Amino acid sequence: MKKYLKYSVVAVAALLATPQLHATQVEAHAQTTHTKHWGYLGDTGPMHWGELNLQYNMCSQGKMQTPINVVPTKDTDLKPLNLAYKTGSKSIINNGHTVQVNIKDGSAMMIDGEAYKLKQFHFHVPSENNIKGDKFPMEAHFVHATDDGKLAVVAVMFKEGKANTVLAKIWKRLPSLKVGEAIKCGLSADEVKALMPKNKDYYKFTGSLTTPPCSENVKWHVLKTPVTVSKEQINTFFNLFGFPNNRPLQHTNNRVIEE
Ligand SMILES: [Zn+2]
């Protein structure tokens, strides 16, 4: 019965969810052409994403996929992250795969003089990327896109510890979230920034979206310093879905990982 209930929740979530394109989905759903929905369990789980739809081909055929076990291969003088976050949240949504906070226009990350606009951030429990073999109980992805569709993600790891006050503000909304329906969230720009550690040293590599269509050439920046989340906050998120929403580790295929 328990198992049945779990699957039925997933099935309902899948039916109701707006198809998620992870980074590119943002709020416009221009590319929602797939027919069979993807998930994290069983026949539609990560091992099968590549078979669900031709457009998900990269999920099985890609050679620069994310997540990975991040082990630096090159000591580079990486420039400090250039984050200009000036806007707060527009809305929060449970899209059936994660909880996502959409950001108002006006925040960006500058890379080589180009503005990658902050679109949304969302969560994975447990973490997707590992750092030198270490897993974390949670990971947040801050998803940025240029106007012509180039993608950059900043990943923040969470370790178990003190309750996270910004998360508390977001988590407060979780009980009232219906799958697929965006509601107001009320985070300020400062609160968005406070979800990241003060020390923003990072690992850099080229990877992919960690959800279908698993598109590549995503610029990944994994922050080295974790922030804290309480065990209770982790459980609250996990219980909302009832399954881990992390894609398994992918091959690095000798990718350069800078630090
Ligand atoms: Zn993600």
Task: Walk me through the structure.
- By secondary structure, the chain is an alpha+beta fold.
- It has one domain: Carbonic Anhydrase II, CATH 3.10.200.10.
- 18% of the residues lie in helices and 25% in strands.
- It has six helices and twelve strands.
- The protein has helices at 2-16, 49-52, 57-61, 165-171, 189-193, 231-241, and strands spanning 69-70, 83-84, 89-94, 99-103, 108-111, 114-124, 130-131, 138-145, 151-160, 202-207, 218-223, 227-229.
- The strands form two sheets. Strands 2, 3, 4, 5, 6, 8, 9, 10, 11 and 12 form a ten-stranded mixed sheet that branches. A two-stranded parallel ribbon has the order 1-7.
- A hairpin with a 2-residue loop joins strand 5 (108-111) and strand 6.
- It is globular and about 45 Å long.
- The N and C termini lie far apart (48 Å).
- The relative contact order is 0.23.
- Bound molecules: zinc ion.
- The site of zinc ion has 5 residues, from strand 6.
- Zinc ion is lined by residues 22, 122, 124, 141, 210.
Offer a quick outline of the entry.
The protein has a single domain (2-241), classed as Roll (Carbonic Anhydrase II). It is globular, with a radius of gyration of 17 Å.
Structural class: alpha+beta
CATH topology-level name: Carbonic Anhydrase II
Beta percentage is 25-35%
Distance between the termini: 48 Å
Computed Rg: 17 Å
Integer average pLDDT: 89
* CATH A-level architecture: Roll
Helical region count? 6
Shape estimate: globular
Q: How many beta-strand elements?
A: 12
CATH class: Alpha Beta
Low-confidence parts lasting 5 or more residues at pLDDT below 50?
A: 1-35
Biggest sheet, open or closed, and with what strands and sense? 10 strands, mixed
Hetero ligands: zinc ion
How do the helices and strands follow one another from N- to C-terminus? HHHEEEEEEEEEHHEEEH
- The total tally of domains equals 1
> What's the CATH H-level homologous superfamily?
Alpha carbonic anhydrase
**Share of helical residues:** 10-25%
